[in-house]
Amino acid sequence: MGILDTLLGRSKPKRPDLDRLFALPTAAVTLEAAAGLTPTGVGAVCFRAAEGAAFAQIEQDVRELLDAGDGPKVELSTDAYGYTWLVARHAPADLEGLVTDLHAVNAALESGGFGPQLLCSLVAFTGPDDRRFGLVYLYKRGTFYPFAPMPGERRDNALELQVRGAVGADLPVEGDLSRWFPVWGAPGL
Which of 31, 70, 129, 166 has a 20 to 30 Å separation from 174 between CA atoms? Predict the structure, then answer.
């Protein structure tokens, strides 16, 4: 960072720390104790698909890697905003395996030079009254935030704030609430 950047108030963006994803199993234990929320076994990585052979090869390699086990195949879906979601499914008790798969997808895209296309990763949870909830990892910020959708594209803000308070010691929670973007139609929610 140069002197001109300092004078103009610009700062270097933080480098993403994908290893923060591995804190999710600990946060899940906290969420279950504090709010009765349990993992559903569904997780997804959201990215803007790029054109070209290099991206297609990385996408194929990632799918082959995740499909190699005995579990269900990964799925690709596109949302209404044009973002691609690569969805992985595990048994709800296998959150560690799910997080490992999400980390592998993020790392493969990042090492292939497609880090700027990564938007977020999401792990879905469910509550005692069958409400859906997601913990969202913002790739470019290296932080998490809660997202609790309700019917009619509304959010359960009280639950989101409750979760923020519960997992704040386990995960780096995004402090800027304006960055808690809604991910309407995200897989698993």
Answer: 129
Q: What is the mean pLDDT of each run of 10 residues along the chain (189 residues)?
A: 60 69 95 94 89 72 70 79 90 94 88 86 92 94 95 93 94 95 92
Please check whether residue 27 lies inside any domain of the structure: no
- Count of structural domains within the chain: 1
Full-model pTM:
0.85
- Overall residue count recorded for the chain in this entry: 189
Residue 58 belongs to some domain of the structure: yes
Provide the domain limits for residue 101: 36-179
At residue 72's C-alpha, the angle toward residues 127 and 90, to 5°, is: 35
**Inside any domain, residue 4:** no
Backbone angles phi, psi at 99, to 5 degrees: -65, -40
